[in-house]
UniProtKB/TrEMBL annotation:
Keyword Cytoplasm: no
Pfam families: HTH_5 (PF01022)
One example GO MF annotation: DNA-binding transcription factor activity
Keywords recorded for this protein, A-Z: Arsenical resistance, DNA-binding, Transcription, Transcription regulation
Organism: Parashewanella spongiae
Coiled-coil parts of chain: none
Full protein name: ArsR family transcriptional regulator
Length: 114
């Protein structure tokens, strides 16, 4: 992963907010991100596809939902930077996090056995 592409991926407010929310929540589905961002499914999906292409996010299917999480192969400094942004600049995700918390009928994650 190139450092420049990792930073370019965060140069858009929607992508930055998605990555920060996913980092904070561990995993989110498209519908949760739509509620948090108050954006349409095509727009959110387009940004998620770019983040996936840059290998920042990984996805998994569970029934009708697609869940996104940070790529575990991201450099440690990148994850630290995301944590620092959440801590130092919490206003970036304050409103989206409130929307997410207010969302009803959030999809249940499958509990992995073993």
């Amino acid at each position: 992963m190139e450092t420049l592409s990792l930073f370019k991926a965060l140069s858009d407010q929607t992508r930055l907010t998605c990555v920060l929310l996913i980092h904070q929540q561990q995993e989110l589905c498209v519908c949760e991100l739509m509620a948090a961002l108050d954006e349409s499914q095509p727009k959110v999906s387009r940004h998620l596809a770019l983040l996936k292409k840059q290998k920042i996010l990984l996805d998994r299917r569970q029934e009708q939902w697609v869940f996104y999480r940070l790529n575990p192969e991201l450099p440690h400094w990148y994850r630290t930077m995301l944590s620092d942004i959440i801590t130092q600049q919490s206003e970036i995700i304050q409103a989206p996090f409130s929307h997410l918390e207010a969302m009803g009928n959030r999809p249940q994650r499958q509990v992995k056995c073993c």
